[in-house]
Design a protein that fits this description.
The complex is a heterodimer of chains A (424) and B (398).
Chain A: H1 3-12, H2 26-35, H3 45-58, H4 66-84, H5 88-100, H6 114-122, H7 130-138, H8 141-146, H9 158-163, H10 170-179, H11 189-198, E1 202-205, E2 212-215, E3 225-227, E4 230-232, H12 236-248, H13 250-264, H14 271-283, H15 288-295, H16 311-321, H17 328-337, H18 361-377, H19 383-389, H20 396-403, H21 408-417
Antiparallel strand pairs in A: 1-2, 3-4
Helix pairs in contact in A: 4-16, 4-17, 6-7, 7-12, 10-11, 13-14, 14-15, 18-21, 19-20, 20-21
Chain B: H1 9-14, H2 19-27, E1 37-44, H3 49-52, E2 53-54, H4 61-65, E3 80-81, E4 87-88, H5 93-100, E5 104-111, H6 119-128, H7 138-144, E6 157-160, E7 174-177, H8 187-197, H9 203-221, H10 230-246, E8 253-259, H11 267-289, E9 296-302, E10 322-327, E11 335-337, E12 358-359, H12 361-372, H13 379-382
Parallel strand pairs in B: 1-8, 1-9, 5-11, 5-12, 6-7, 6-8
Antiparallel strand pairs in B: 2-4, 3-4, 5-10, 9-10
Helix pairs in contact in B: 2-9, 8-9, 10-11
Classes of the chains: A mainly alpha (424), B alpha/beta (398).
Chain lengths: 424, 398
């Protein structure tokens, strides 16, 4: 395997798979993945909401709920997909955007909706328009529940007047701060409150058939609203217009370019790299496929060793390298042990993407523990052959340690725990 | 106590302090008196200070918060009495015992260094100890400034939990500990790994430090505990932290964290569970510390308070000032300290938040200098650009 193929596999992909020939033309292999849109046959929010409705009626113990069962099913399927996909660049983009628009199982009622959220709001748009992804995300029941918009009520709406209920700012604030323009845009508390008013009525209906998104006019705050100097009309249309405005805002393009280059180039990406991706987003009206293709043109993205793998990255790379495809529950347990439990980010900003966030002493040692456990379960492959097949991804010192280790298990564990395997 | 484990030949040859080689060596130090200890508990997600320490004596409270306020002290499920104007949330019974025995000081209307309502920016600034984000935390910089007779090779500070919080990142070497490890390999495997990683500037030192801390934890605890249940995980971790801090050769400074405070919806139910978890953790920490409690100060802090008014979902949104707790045998407690800004008309910040009347850096400066012995001239590096914020006096027992 040559250096470029190796870099394509670890930086843009999810790590090489055992017994799979490396791509002969790495750049075209990556570009092809941006063009082929796989058919979507994932879990649906209809099923997730029906499970949530049944759980609310029957009130089972959280561990025995229907939602929990669907969560585990969907999480396992997501791990299996990552271990086996032949379009790992596209899959990495799915994980990236799902983290950008974090929905976490720490809000238990979202459990059965995270798989559907990724299938319906994220995956179809990772190489399409950001504005469409943003709108799909903000109307998705998972996000409306996770960031509490489903129950936000305009104080001057009919329902607000009658019940004295009011706004919930959570989704409006995080949409501005995390999903779109970021605080660099200089919006104020008044903008947050006003945007929350715009989004009143964006809710879900569990009783309608099928259950799903519903705009509730009687909880919508009357009148036009001003957000960041723009006026948006009353009604559902106001929210749609505001999201289109935010998606196309230059500050959003900058924010997205910064996050993409941080993920694919370096923790502190070179300003020229950020500008390149930002410009591509601006020139293509927010085409995320074009932005992903722009990443391939950044020389520093092809420099090895600038990124540390997150625990999820590490486990998926280890699973792919050792040919693991049938043990997603073990991977889920290991993710918990390594401090990155599946779809369970502690806060709406998602999992961090810099080395300093993952380099704690105990966390790094746990990767060695996990490597040793994986090595004990996998009869294949032969560690020396694997180390040689990984080519430039393995340093001579590690190759030598693998070849001279006291046991097959120890050899494989050293290969997976070695510092170069913690990088991508 | 763990019996000494034979050190592998390779470990000796490489001169590495592999985990197992370390335990017995460290135990040899266990003779002297325990130095003073400082524990910081970061409550992530913005704990509602007005629900923790309720100013029920303020005539404006009931109109703003309605039925999310618990009954007054003395009534069924009522607040715990703090001597009048304020009441403590009923789920904080352990903290209340510290308070009545003069070992807890409740600081109200206090806020971190910034006036932003973003969790992420506010947490970063709270941990940086500055009004802007930094790449190191104030507690780490304080540890760097600690006077010491002989430098400790294993570090003076420890993070409890899998992550390394920004609060403890920086120039000083810091260990980490977390419960619930999976079966580990033989010592020789880790020795080989340490050798492989030695040349890696980023990962090498981290692996090395991890092995030292593991050896230490094993020496203190005897065994490696299994993964605890989620509900009691924080209390178990806090107890372990206390046990490690209680050793004469243990870390002098520790950081813990508890998340889940972002109560936009159904606040009464959610906060009840949160407060119980926090309370059990503080009690467990005190039990783990034993007699070292007398020389300990614990600071509980959060990134900001929450809106004074209840929102549309019996929750509260992001606010400004809130509360911090100082507890420990070294604290001159039994008081609520606040320059109360009031909740009446015209008193709220931006007509929504409790107005800050104190800066969290003021008590932190005082504890760092008067309790831990950080030299006053080092405070400029610990909390940059904050000369105007004087250390808060009268927090500690004479």
């Amino acid at each position: 395997m040559d250096v470029t193929a190796a870099q394509a596999l670890v930086r843009f992909g999810l790590g090489p798979r055992a017994e799979e020939a490396p791509p002969g033309d790495p750049r075209s292999w990556l570009r092809r993945q941006l063009q082929t849109q796989a058919a979507s046959d994932g879990p649906t929010s209809t099923e997730g909401l029906e499970a949530l409705r049944a759980d609310r009626e029957e009130k089972p113990l959280p561990q025995k709920s229907r939602s929990r069962a669907l969560f585990i099913r969907d999480a396992r399927a997501a791990i299996t997909a990552a271990l086996t996909t032949e379009a790992p660049f596209r899959e990495r983009l799915v994980w990236f955007w799902a983290n950008h628009f974090t929905v976490s199982v720490r809000r238990g009622q979202c459990a059965a909706l995270i798989g559907p959220f990724i299938a319906e709001a994220i995956r179809p748009h990772v190489t399409a328009r950001f504005a469409d992804m943003l709108l799909a995300v903000m109307r998705h029941p998972a996000m409306l529940l996770y960031l509490d918009n489903a129950g936000s009520v305009g104080p001057d709406s009919p329902v607000g007047q009658r019940t004295h209920r009011g706004l919930n700012e959570n989704l409006a604030r995080e949409c501005l701060e995390l999903h779109t323009v970021s605080p660099a845009a200089g919006y104020t508390q008044a903008d947050v409150t006003s945007f929350a008013r715009v989004l009143t009525g964006w809710s879900i209906d569990l009783q309608q058939s099928p259950p799903g998104f519903r705009f509730r006019p009687f909880t919508h705050e009357p009148g036009a609203k001003i957000v960041m100097g723009r006026t948006f009309p009353e009604g559902e249309e106001g929210g749609i217009e505001a999201l289109a405005f935010l998606a196309a805002h230059p500050a959003t393009h900058h924010h997205l370019a910064l996050k993409l280059t941080r993920h694919f180039v370096a923790d502190d990406p070179p300003p020229a790299a950020v500008r390149l991706v930002e410009g591509r987003l601006r020139d293509t009206d927010g085409d995320l496929g074009a932005a992903a293709a722009a990443l391939l043109d950044i020389p520093q993205a092809w420099q090895s060793d600038t990124k540390i793998r997150t625990p999820a990255d590490f486990l998926i790379a280890a699973g792919r390298a050792t040919g693991m495809s049938d043990a997603p529950e073990r991977a889920l347990g290991a993710m918990r042990m390594l401090g990155q439990p599946m779809w369970a980010a502690p806060q709406p900003d998602g999992w961090p993407d810099r080395a300093a966030d993952w380099l704690s002493p105990e966390a790094m040692l746990r990767r060695a523990d996990v490597a040793y456990a994986i090595a004990g379960m996998q009869a294949e492959p032969d560690p020396s052959q694997l180390a040689e097949a990984l080519g430039p991804l393995v340093r001579p010192a590690t190759l030598s340690a693998v070849q001279h280790a006291g046991s097959r298990r120890e050899a494989l564990a050293l290969l997976l725990a070695a510092p170069e395997f913690q990088r991508r | 106590m763990t019996p000494p484990v034979k050190t592998s030949r390779r470990a000796t040859l490489l001169g590495l302090s592999a985990a197992i080689a370390l335990g017995p060596v460290r135990l040899a130090f266990a003779a002297g008196a325990v130095e003073r200890r400082f524990v910081v508990v970061t409550l992530r997600g913005a704990m509602d200070g007005l629900a923790a320490v309720v100013p029920y004596g303020d005539p404006a409270l009931a109109g703003l918060r309605g039925d999310i306020v618990p009954p007054e002290p003395g009534q069924p499920n009522g607040m715990l009495d703090l001597g009048g104007f304020y009441g403590l949330h009923p789920a904080l019974a352990g903290l209340h015992r510290f308070y009545t025995s003069g070992q807890a000081l409740l600081l109200h209307a206090i806020a971190g260094p910034t006036r932003v309502r973003s969790h992420f920016e506010a947490q970063d600034c709270l941990e940086s100890g500055a009004d802007h984000r930094m790449t190191s935390g104030w507690l780490n910089r304080a540890v760097s400034a600690l006077p010491r007779a002989a430098p400790k090779t294993e570090g003076d500070a420890m993070a409890f939990g899998v992550d390394m919080p920004l609060l403890l990142r920086g120039p000083a070497r810091v260990g980490s500990y977390a419960a619930g490890r999976i079966g580990a390999a033989a010592p020789d495997f880790y020795t080989q790994l340490a050798a492989l990683a030695a040349g890696d500037k980023l990962i090498g030192p981290v692996i090395h430090q991890g092995l030292r801390e593991r050896g230490y934890a094993q020496a203190v605890l005897g065994t490696v505990p299994a993964a605890p249940e989620k509900a009691s995980a924080f209390a178990l971790l806090a107890r372990t932290a206390g046990e490690m801090l209680a050793r004469p050769d243990g870390p002098r400074v520790a950081a813990l964290e508890l998340d889940g405070w972002d109560t936009h919806v159904a606040q009464p139910q959610r906060l009840d569970a949160q407060f119980r978890q926090l309370d059990a953790g503080l009690v467990a920490l005190r039990e783990g510390l034993g007699t070292a409690w007398d020389k300990t100060v614990v600071l509980c802090m959060t990134e900001f308070g929450r809106t004074v008014r209840v929102n549309g979902n019996r929750g509260t949104d992001h606010g400004t000032a809130g509360v911090a707790f100082l507890l420990g045998g070294a604290v001159a407690g039994g008081k609520v300290r606040a320059d109360w800004p009031g909740l009446g008309p015209g008193r709220l910040l931006d007509n929504r938040d409790l107005a800050p009347s104190a800066d969290l850096r003021a008590p932190a400066k005082s504890v760092l200098t008067a309790h831990l012995g950080v030299p006053a001239q080092a405070l400029g590096a610990v909390f940059p650009d904050s000369a105007q914020i004087a250390p808060m006096a009268g927090l500690l027992r004479a």
